[in-house]
Amino acid sequence: MARARALTKAFFDRDSLEVAPELLNKVLVGNGVSARLVEVEAYRATEDPGSHAYRGRTLRNASMFSAPGTLYVYFSYGNHWCMNAVCGPGDTGNAVLLRAAAPLDGLDLMRERRLKATRDRDLTAGPGRLGQAFAVDRALDGTSLVRAPGPLRIVDDGTVPPTRPGVSTRIGLAPGKGDDLPYRFYVPGDLNISRPPR
User: Fold this and answer.
1) Which one of 21, 32, 149, 195 counts the least CB within 10 Å of its CB?
2) What domains can be seen in the chain, in order of their start residue?
3) Band of residue 83 on the pLDDT scale cut at 50, 70, 90
4) DSSP assigned state of 123
């Protein structure tokens, strides 16, 4: 990946609905591993009942209101860490959940971190699995995806996003909590997405 370039703050300083489909086929790199993003979900601050920022800033979601390109990490269902790329415009609380990726480098290390995975796709197919494969925990919350010394980066290796990404409603939201919004984007036909299209 010698020609890969890190995404900039300007890339993320837009509405999460613009950023999300453009993150598809970008590469998440860090902690000894890399994987190509194949599934993401947009969350849109105070206008989106599915967003952690819906009711404004709290101690838990403070990183969502940081500069675009910040990593927001939260603990989900009491057993895994999930990663989000904070988006703009400005410090508005928009973010994109990194849901699934296709493993590229460091698979042996991913397998050490994901002992229950029986197939390569099980290493990073789902936000909790992805977080575990990248050794993510609360310590990474608020670190930068766009400047040193942040441990993770999202880079562009020249692979373009799909012209027509798959679009669906988001996964795991309660009825009436944004479950009807078509804010999930994925690479059609990729075997590493967390769930097939509905």
Assistant:
1) 149
2) 5-186 (3.10.300.10)
3) very high
4) G
